[in-house]
């Protein structure tokens, strides 16, 4: 099993400067490679590929020993591959006829991570120069950076990446062969509905609320962004406000992750099988209809930004849930969410009028009344069990 582990770094002041320089040089490399591809195509109609750009790295490093030459060759290749991936995605979108956005130059503050694709190559996890009990990661050009290792690492460390979130630095290890830790069977199954007011509602009627403090931070972020829009470009105040917005973004991310981990853990402990909406389909239908259904209770009628901040948690949550489910030996089933919110879980009657408000469901055929999210979760569970039965019969 593959799993990642993320830790806070405790760099010295000198290391912070080196980390920032490392990011900056990788950003410039990315932009230079992007420029190269653009001009080659504009002037000569030539597509430049990753292989050619990677081959040029040697010269770039040789010409700039105190700049680009300081960093790991492999991490620079990883950055070029990242650009390559952006281009592949771009051409993929062109092919499928969608309006693609051309890969963009990364401005300052828009390039926040560097990856070392192989432990031992320009980086070394758990390298201990002078302290027997502390954990360090060695990064080429930066040195031994102390790690706040709050939990053990399992499996084989494959890749190491460093990212900046506001004023904090983190290291993320991607590990292979992490042993699974199956949980005892509970014989219980559940469907879950993902919402805004409640992140998760189960078919048993349990609700995990989007934490109140997440909504509060989302509010503050919205305010901070409006303030930012009023600041004059290039001013000292604007620069400070940019930092404030970045810090709040980072806080939202941390709170969301924390809430998602707790909710996912509770679910995999309680249920052997969990059915959920297939988000790829959900997102498509939501953006196509273009309507924001009346938002829920706690976060009533908040700005689009606030809502999108809370919404964006679903993908994160499902990713975490799938990792935990795999580790615990639980089964997840993704179902098509069409009509799950307007179908009566008791009699199957499907009508728009069944849904009175965001929170209330009342069937116009049989009179069944329930919390709308619970009703949807039951439909999702039923659809999931039907899929599983069909798969077993096949
Ligand atoms: Zn009914």
TrEMBL record:
Pfam families given in the database record: Cas12f1-like_TNB, HTH_OrfB_IS605, OrfB_IS605
Domain Probable transposase IS891/IS1136/IS1341: 181-287
Domain Transposase putative helix-turn-helix: 1-43
Keywords attached to this entry: DNA recombination, DNA-binding, Metal-binding, Transposition, Zinc
Sample GO molecular function, one term: metal ion binding
InterPro entries per record: Cas12f1-like_TNB, RNA-guided_DNA_endo/Transpos, Transposase, Transposase_put_HTH
Domain Cas12f1-like TNB: 314-380
Entry coiled-coil feature ranges: none
Gene Ontology terms describing biological process: DNA recombination; transposition
Superkingdom per UniProt: Bacteria
Family membership: In the N-terminal section; belongs to the transposase 2 family.
Entry protein name: Transposase
Species assigned in the record: Nonomuraea glycinis
